[in-house]
């Protein structure tokens, strides 16, 4: 039985996994099955690395802002105390 796309998208991950596992023993697969899984894993790793890069960029922006604020304070103090 093939599900309609709307029904497939509404099905929970757990139900899809259970359905897959039930049919897996009675199905022969080609090499594309393994290639698709390798591609999925590659995308998952890339997404994780992208997220880690975004987090690091956020903290770098915070540090840059803090250091810029310190530089402004030092500049204002130099102007005020230097006169």
Q: Provide mean pLDDT, rounded.
A: 93
Strand proportion, as a percent range, falls in: under 5%
Termini Cα gap: 85 Å
String of helices and strands: HHH
Q: How many DSSP helices?
A: 3
| Overall form | rod-shaped
Write the layout of secondary structure elements.
Elements: H1 5-10, H2 13-24, H3 31-82
Task: Describe the protein in words.
By secondary structure, the protein is mostly helical. It contains three helices and no strands. It has helices at residues 5-10, 13-24, 31-82. It starts with a helix and ends with a helix.
Summarize the model shown:
The protein has 83 residues and is an all-alpha fold. It contains 3 helices and no strands. The model has no long low-confidence stretch (mean pLDDT 93).
Descriptive labels:
mainly alpha, rod-shaped
């Amino acid at each position: 039985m093939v599900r309609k796309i709307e029904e497939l998208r509404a099905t929970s991950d757990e139900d899809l996994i259970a359905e897959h596992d039930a049919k897996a023993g009675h199905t022969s697969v080609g090499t594309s099955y393994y290639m698709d899984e390798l591609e999925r894993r590659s995308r998952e790793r890339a997404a994780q690395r992208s997220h880690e890069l975004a987090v690091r960029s956020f903290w770098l922006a915070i540090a840059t802002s803090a250091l810029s604020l310190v530089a402004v304070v030092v500049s204002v103090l130099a102007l005020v105390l230097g006169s």
